[in-house]
Write a structure and sequence with these properties.
By secondary structure, this protein is mainly beta. It contains one helix and eleven strands. Strands 2, 4, 5, 6, 9, 10 and 11 form a seven-stranded mixed β-sheet that branches. A four-stranded antiparallel β-sheet has the order 1-3-8-7, with no helix packed on it.
Length: 124
């Protein structure tokens, strides 16, 4: 039904920047909540940010607050994650997710669709 495809990952130096994009394919509803997660090898999946497509309500994990910015362009069915001041500890596979409510996406529960992931690597 819903397909999410991430892009924009890569290798950057400590302090560098990347912009991830997630394209939503299928029936798009402005009420879909979109979020970003990440998972490093051997670590649990970590919620990064969430945004409401309709209301612009945004939350960030403490670990990325002030460095990352989530945004979206509903006309393009795309959600972005601008990542600045990247640190080696940001190295992970980043996943886009779509869900029905802020709480469900924030908790990673009852996610309607996950993207395939894009690798972000930050060198020291």
């Amino acid at each position: 039904q819903v397909r999410l495809v991430e892009s924009g990952g890569g290798l950057v130096q400590d302090g560098g920047s990347l912009r991830l994009a997630c394209v939503f394919s299928g029936q798009f509803f402005s009420s879909y909540v979109m979020g970003w997660f990440r998972q490093a090898p051997g670590k649990e999946r970590e919620w990064v940010a969430v945004i409401s497509w309709t209301g612009g309500y945004i939350l960030y994990a403490d670990s990325v607050e002030g460095r990352f910015t989530i945004s979206r362009d509903n006309a393009l069915n795309t959600v972005y994650l601008q990542m600045n001041s990247l640190k080696p500890e940001d190295t992970a596979v980043y996943y886009c997710a779509a869900g029905s409510t802020i709480a469900r996406v924030r908790e990673g529960a009852e996610i309607d669709s996950w993207g395939q992931g894009t690798q972000v690597s930050v060198s020291s």
